Amino acid sequence: MIQTDVAVVGGGILGTATALALVEGAGGGRRSVVVLEAEERLAAHQSGHNSGVVHSGLYYKPGSLKARLCVTGARALYRFCEEEGIACRRVGKLVVATRAEELPKLDELERRGRANGLVGLRRLDASGIREVEPAAAGIAALHVPESGVADFPAVVRAYARRVQAAGGEVWTGARLLGVRRDAAAGAAGARLALETSRGAVSCRLLVNCAGLQSDRVARLCGERPDVRIVPFRGEYYEIGPPGRDLVRGLIYPVPDPRFPFLGVHLNPTFDGRVEAGPNAVMALKREGYRWRDVSARDLAATAAWPGTWRLAARFWRTGIEEVWRSLVRAAFLRDLRRLVPGLQDGDLRRGGSGVRAQALDRDGGLVDDFRILRGAPGGIATLHVLNAPSPGATASLAIGREIAAMAREMLPD
Q1: Which of 115, 128, 200, 359 is 20 to 30 A from 144, alpha carbon to alpha carbon?
Q2: Beta pairing class for 192-196 and 250-253
Q3: Domains with residue ranges and CATH for the chain
Q4: Res 347: pLDDT
C-alpha cells in the first residue's frame, strides 16, 4: 500500500487541475498526491466529449461560484494554453435574440456580464450582428470577445504531466472499489485505506472529482448527498462545406433560464471544424453516448430518485421536444436555421456526443451552481465535487485552487 497526503478520484480536467494545485502548493503548502482514474486513459468522459468552448462568465449569477471561478479560470486557462503550446483561440461569441420576447432575457445576460467584469462586451442590433457574423440573423445580440475554444483533452494531459513532474502520481485503470478507515495508521493520524483495481492507497484526504460517478463515490465514503447525478446526453452534428464557411465564431441562442443548458449552438473547434449542438436528452446510462447504450443499474438509480419524477412532471413537454430533436434531423436543422438561415440539410453530418453529469435535487431542481461537499466520515476528511458541469472545464484551474485551499484547512501540517 502506498501512502499519500491526498488521493484525487477522477482523471478528468477537474481531478488533474486539483492535483496540480495541490502539488504546486496552491492554498499554502505542497501535498503529495495520487490521481486515481478508473478508465485506461485520462479525459475519457466529460473532459473529452465536450464542445471545447472556453466560456467568459456571461451567463452566471453575479456572486455565484460559477461566475467567480469562470472569469478567473478562463483567463488562467488562456495563459496555461499559451505556456504549453496547446491549441486555443479567442474566436468570440454572439448570443442572438431572434424574437422580441427574448429581449428581456438578453438584457439580463448583459447585466450579468457587466457585473461579472467581462471585457469588451457589446450590445448589437441587427446590422451589428451582420458585421460580426454576416450569415447570422437576429434582432439583437451580445458580442462577447473573451469567449474561445481549446483542446481540453490536451489540457488534461498537460495538467497530468505537470503533476508528475512535481512528484505526484497519476494512475489510470485504477477504479475505486472500497473505502475504509486505515486501522494501521496508528500514530500517523486518521487515514483512509482505498482499495482500487490497481492496488491499495492510504491517504489523509480523499477528493472526489469523479464526475458522472461522483454521487456514488460520495456514498462509498459514507456520505449521503442530497443530490443524485442524472446523465444528460448532448448530441452534435458537424457542419461540412459550404455551410462551414457561414460560421466565423461561436453563435448561441438566448438560453432558457429555467435550465442550466445553453441551447443548440454553432461553434468552430480548435482544429478548424465547425460543430452544431448539443441537445439535452436524458441518457439511459451514465456513460451512454448512444441511444443503444443502456444500463439497468443507472436506469434504476435515476428512476428511484424522487427528483426525477418531479422534474418530468414539470417539464415533460420540453423532454419530448428534446427527444424529437434527437431523432429527427429536420428538427435539429430548424433550430440551427433560426441562428444561421443559410444552413442546408446537406451541410449536416452526424458528429459525436457527450454526457453531462447533472446534479438533481429531491425536489426536481437542476442544480445550477458548482456544489462541493465537505465530509468527515469517522473523522477522516473528504471533499466531494457533486456538481461541476459547464463551465467546469473553463474554470478548472480556479476550481482546483479553490479545492486546494479547502484541503489546506482540512489537513493540518
Answers
A1: 359
A2: unpaired
A3: 1-87+147-226+369-413 (3.50.50.60), 93-145 (no CATH), 231-361 (3.30.9)
A4: 97
